[in-house]
Amino acid sequence: MVHLTTVPNDDVAQAPLVEGLQNIKFEQPQEDEVTASIYGSRFATEGLPGHSLPDGEMPRDVAYRMIKDHLTLDGNPVLNLASFVTTYMEEEAEKLMAEALPKNFIDYEEYPQTADIQNKCVNMIARLYNAPTDADEDNAMGTSTVGSSEAIMLATLAMKRRWQNKRKAAGKDISKPNIVMNSAVQVCWEKAARYFEIEEKYVYCTEDRYVIDPAEAVGMIDENTIGICTILGSTYTGQYEDTKAVNDLLIKKGIDCPIHVDAASGGFVAPFVVPEMEWDFRLEKVVSINVSGHKYGLVYPGVGWVVWRSPEFLPKELVFNINYLGADQASFTLNFSKGASQVLGQYYQFIRLGRSGYRSIMLNLTRTADYLAACLKQMGFVIMSEGGGKGLPLVAFRLNPEKKHHFDEFAVAHQLRERGWVVPAYTMAPNAGKLKVIDRHISLHVSTELSADIAVESCCA
Hints:
Layout: H1 10-13, H2 60-71, H3 91-99, H4 112-128, E1 141-145, H5 148-169, E2 178-182, H6 187-195, E3 199-203, H7 214-219, E4 225-231, H8 243-253, E5 259-262, H9 270-273, E6 286-292, E7 304-308, E8 320-322, E9 329-331, H10 341-378, E10 382-383, E11 395-398, H11 409-417, E12 425-427, E13 435-439, H12 444-460
Parallel strand pairs: 2-3, 2-4, 4-5, 5-6
Antiparallel strand pairs: 1-7, 6-7, 8-9, 10-11, 11-13, 12-13
Helix pairs in contact: 3-10, 4-10, 5-6, 10-12
């Protein structure tokens, strides 16, 4: 299964799914046998169009039912623990988002109140991350994106252009930029580096360390380094990387290198569960932060956010000024048009929950993750994630190699799939060389059900 679609040639598109089916004739209904019922219509006897745009029309109720029936083979989002994304929002939030579906968010002149709500969200996130707001400080800046991938692309572009400008001013070569990051970064970092022609310098994981080593990372910096990425919540184990240690080493060694914090997952967890932990703009070397609203921000996909400490770290030549939508406006995005619904959904959650609401939810998720980890440890699994709020509220676990099971983590995941659970099993980052299974945030009673199923399926695998 891939996100890129290959368009089949005609001979493939017209071939039967199973050889020989083309010889079996289906008796078509006569005109007077077609009724107003969806399943009595001729459309119920035809396959869904898949290769060419159909010549004729289809009644709206039939189109709805045909597509809805087709989607019944999808999994249940509530049981999909392979994804960090939000699968529940309140009815009022869904209504607000549905009402905004016709709005093109980029048209600020036409929808000024929607644009104002984005600004409110950016303000709230910037202050949540302790952006400088004193009168003598430059203003922090930020924008919404379609997810953390776009946010990371924008932050990477900003770091690269700022590095280029400094090198040009000094009359130095700008042809070999590089970025330092953990080998366990999410794939969007690899995309950003390759799309924008930046060398990837990895701090590799080991069999007992799955996060960046601050000393090794700082030691990899050279004159061509545009920045260091640290992760607030690893995709693999949920652990928080020690951004403060990286920051302090840079200061101690007198190295002028910015830090970007990938807080896609932890950006709406850490401020409420471990507010004393320093990872954000309290650290002087942190110049930009991204976060996903559709993960622990509790909004349906996709929405993300990126914030810069000050305009100094967002070169002005990357910001485009346009007026063909009816008024002058600034734009710094990879795409142009996008829906307004997710931004409104984020604002709804902010004012609906507030700090106390987010804190309650994230603490409950942390307790649930700790409970599930304790259950799995009791069953003999090796827990790879950190509990007690020291990482994301998820559980990463693997089979105990000392027990020499005749099955692996992939077999356990396959067995759980038969019960409807989508629990991912995959290899660790390069050089770590282990397999593991991850569970995302779920409620306590669902966690108990999952524990019971894991116990049963582990015995049967």
